[in-house]
Structures are given as C-alpha cells and as structure tokens.
Amino acid sequence: LANSIQTIEAITKDNVMLTLKGKVYRSVIWGGSDNSVLKSKVLTALMKTTKKSAAVTFDVSSPNAPAVRYSNF
Q1: What is the pLDDT of residues 18-73, one digit of tens each?
Q2: Which of 8, 17, 47, 58 has minimal Cβ neighbours within 10 Å of its Cβ?
Q3: Are 61 and 69 in contact (CB under 8 A)?
Q4: CA dist 58 to 9, 44, 49, Å?
Q5: With contact defined as beta carbons under 8 Å apart, do 56 and 66 qualify?
Q6: How far apart are CA 20 and CA 17, in angstroms?
Q7: How many CB atoms are located within 10 Å of the residue 54 CB?
C-alpha cells in the first residue's frame, strides 16, 4: 500500500487524507490512526475490486463500513 501513496495530508490527527499514484484522481479518507491494520486491509480489497481507470474516493475512516465514491456521481 505504501508504494501506491503519492501524498498524505493531515489537517488534524483524526483527519488524514491520502492521494494515490496514477493517471486518474484516486484519494483515500483515512481518518485517524486507530484500526490502521484493518483500514489498510479494507483499502487493499476495495482497490482490487475497483477499475484502475475509475476516479474514486475510498473512505476507510470507519473500516467496518467503508465507502467508495465515484467522481461522476
């Protein structure tokens, strides 16, 4: 996962957002540092099931209820 990250932005310690490398805009709402291992596993699974050509935002701030938002909606 670390190799996929382009930038990390932290407004506060509980409001962390990642931008992923690639030709299309893909970002991750990470939230805080709690449950980081679970968040990374959930994010990896979401990334595998989403087309690489899709511009999306992955929200794993609550890893038990993740969300994927497509930019065209």
Answers
A1: 999 999 999 999 999 999 999 999 999 999 999 888 999 999 999 999 999 998 65
A2: 8
A3: no
A4: 15, 10, 12
A5: no
A6: 10
A7: 13
Rounded to 5 degrees, φ, ψ at 36 are -60, -40
The label of the residue with tokens 């209820």 reads 65
Q: Which residues, including other chains, have CB under 8 Å from residue 36's CB and lie 6 or more apart? A: none
Long-range contacts of 67-73 (CB under 8 A, 24+ apart): 71/25
Threshold 0.85, pTM exceeds: yes
- Alpha carbon dihedral 48, 50, 52, 55, in 10-degree steps, equals -140
Please tell me the distance from the alpha carbon of residue 4 to that of residue 12, in angstroms, as a whole number: 22
56-59 and 26-31 as β-strands: parallel, antiparallel, unpaired? parallel
Instruction: Please give the DSSP secondary-structure letter assigned to residue 3.
Output: G
